[in-house]
């Protein structure tokens, strides 16, 4: 990894390239996804089968789109005890964290003659998209848990999952076992943009939902962006990111490993170290090279680090904090002597990992907070997927006649300023009633 002194013209140029790598969509992708969504909306299951046969499972049929109870039962026999132990622990801890997020309805009667409040209710149905991962050979189990468990805690009556099938027409057993554990009601063997279309519009087999969540490739991301408004979505997520703030107490081997844990995701992923120790910067750069030698996805990681990786040596922790707040990273690690002293000053981050033994992967799989996080600087204004994404809030308003008369003249004043005579009249007719 290249080391920069920050601030400097070279460092500024590098940071501009990293921060400026927003989520862009090629015109050809936009056109292709638009066609797919229109096709699914018009033709339903027949469109899903056509795309599935072309891209995923050549022998897919309408009858096989929904995972059967027999398939669910068979899946449990195909996973080992070690997986079940890890799955159960992860599910328990994810559930425990998200239960703390449940909002409550409330009523306020402090103003005489009024009742004001808010009702909180779950949406009627939610859809969770789960990538298949290399044709089903690397099932992304954590995506099942992170999408479905918050929906269940919110009280959503119907939670469905879509995931691309393997070429055999099956779904990886680990995904099905995780879906059962997370409380998913139905699993459908369909992926990519056509799966998002099915969830948004509904087909003969797949019910339409109110909210769609979950990560995916560029077609999935673009499809979610296009159906937003027809349904709610979690976010438009880009490539993975990590920023590590480290001082002289950090272990360079740990730091290098954590940077590579994100760089291996994607050539567009970003991995940045910000430190006030020039010695640590050199040690981490060397450790990265050493660890790349044995990394299975070394080619991807090298491309990522070359384009969007950097080590920034700053004057002090104040500069490191300012830079982190400017970047607003998805994952922010604090490998410093006293992380609780630094954390309150960090305003913009998807998730903050505190201390030398809290690497980013603990958040991906086990800690409890959601790993669906804002990327590309959107942590400046958005948050992790949560129970709130599956709930909606309805305002309650009630006025007595006396309370109405107290506010009436001021309401009419504001309505008339806005040129809305009908609004003012709705107040006036009540004032005029004897």
Q: How would you briefly describe this protein structure?
A:
This protein is α/β, with parallel strands linked by helices.
Explain what you see.
This protein is of the alpha/beta class and 434 residues long. The protein has 3 domains: 3-23 and 238-368, Rossmann fold (3-Layer(aba) Sandwich); 27-232, Rossmann fold (3-Layer(aba) Sandwich); 401-432, no CATH class. The protein has helices at residues 9-19, 27-43, 45-55, 69-76, 81-99, 141-154, 173-182, 192-201, 218-227, 252-263, 278-292, 298-308, 317-327, 339-342, 360-365, 401-417, 421-432, and strands at residues 3-5, 106-108, 114-122, 125-129, 158-163, 186-189, 211-213, 232-233, 241-246, 270-275, 309-313, 331-335, 351-354, 391-399. It has a 6-stranded parallel sheet, with helices on both faces. The protein has a 5-stranded parallel sheet with strand order 6-5-4-7-8, with helices on both faces. β12 (331-335), α14 and β13 (351-354) form a beta-alpha-beta unit. α8 (192-201) runs parallel beside α9. It comes from Desulfosarcina alkanivorans. InterPro entries: Ald_DH/histidinol_DH, Histidinol_DH_monofunct, Hstdl_DH.
